[in-house]
Specification:
190 residues, mainly alpha, UraD-like
Length: 190
């Protein structure tokens, strides 16, 4: 029995990994993308200017270091760009009212939006965790709260960068301007 000719191996088109695309992107595009992860011009310039990064861990370490070095003005700029975490669909209006009241008290005391890194918590616990965080942090003095807010921003930026450039998704409201793709080949989008 004779067999027909063997077909050449099928090769998938090369799709750059998100980190490779980030490393190769023009500086302005990289900085714009980074601003969606942390709203600090100085932080985004510092991260973009130190490219290329050999791996995601190196990028995240650099992002952490740059976040620790935020000046009070940089921190104020970053906090001004933040908003409260989104509440799960179906959250009762009473919960929205409680959150609005707690946030208003927080903002009146500290002069900026409350920021919290929620991590991988269960969606049903989001409102409780936010309210608990605001209420417990309202007892802080302004300097203590700035330190905590800076740490929460650092953690948020780290998570957003990991989601975006680790190929698992993207920063909220940020699509890579250079068309980076996730590991499954899909272009990240909102």
């Amino acid at each position: 029995m004779t067999r027909g000719p063997t077909l050449p191996a099928h090769r998938l088109p090369y799709l750059p990994k998100p980190l490779d695309a980030f490393n190769a992107a023009p500086g302005d595009e990289a900085r714009v993308l980074l601003l969606h992860c942390l709203h600090s011009l100085r932080w985004s310039r510092r991260i973009a200017d130190h490219r290329p990064y050999p791996d995601l861990d190196s990028l995240l370490a650099a992002a952490d270091e740059a976040a620790y070095d935020l000046s009070p003005g940089d921190l104020s700029e970053a906090l001004a760009g933040e908003s409260l975490p989104e509440l799960p669909e179906g959250t009762y209006s009473a919960a929205h009212m409680a959150l609005s009241a707690a946030h208003a008290a927080y903002e009146a005391k500290f002069g900026h939006t409350f920021v919290i890194h929620l991590g991988d918590g269960h969606p049903d616990e989001v409102i409780d965790r936010i309210l608990e965080g605001i209420r417990s942090r309202l007892t802080n003095d302004p300097e203590e709260e700035r330190v905590l807010a800076a740490d929460e921003l650092r953690r948020l930026a780290r998570e957003r960068l990991g989601q975006l450039l680790g190929g698992a998704g993207q920063c909220p409201s940020a699509a890579p301007p250079w068309g980076a793709t996730s590991h499954n080949g899909a272009t990240p989008g909102r």
